[in-house]
Amino acid sequence: MLGMTTSTPPGDDGDDPGERRLFSRDVDPPPSKWRPRVILLGVVTLMLVGVWFWLHSSEDRALLAMAPAQRKALFHETQQGFRLMCLSDAGKDFIPRCRQQATFLARFPECDTSCRQEISPYYPGPLR
Question: What's the domain count of the chain?
Fold first, then answer.
């Protein structure tokens, strides 16, 4: 019986019956290395979006937190500066600054319909 091997029934290889075979179909797949990274990336992205919204609205909160008299004075001062710089012939030289001023003026509750018409050539988006 040299060279002959005895066959053993499947699953009866003499080892521990609780031990899994290397090529068995019931072996658990290796844990995914990408899942924790994707979750972390999602959490970081959500945090960045939240921070962006918070910072974006901080100027509005600051304006609304001001005393009405102070806010009105700041509005009129900013509006006068906008008119002097942007509505004159020199306004074409200050387009980026005029856009910033128009965006800032639009945030004031005091910016009514006439104010919105005045800043509309420099406002970078639709006015509410």
Answer: 2
Give the torsion through C-alpha atoms of 111, 112, 115, 120, to 10 deg.
Answer: 90
SS3 content of the chain, % helix, strand, coil (to 5): 60, 0, 40
Q: Is 26 domain-assigned? A: no
pTM: predicted TM-score of the whole model, two decimal places:
0.54
Domain span at residue 45 reads 33-65
Name the helix (H) or strand (E) containing 64. helix 34-65
* Cβ pair 69, 89 in contact under 8 A: no
Q: What pLDDT digit, counting tens, does each position of 4-59 carry? A: 555 555 555 555 555 555 666 666 666 677 778 888 888 899 888 888 877 777 77
Query: Do 100 and 122 touch, CB atoms closer than 8 A?
Result: no
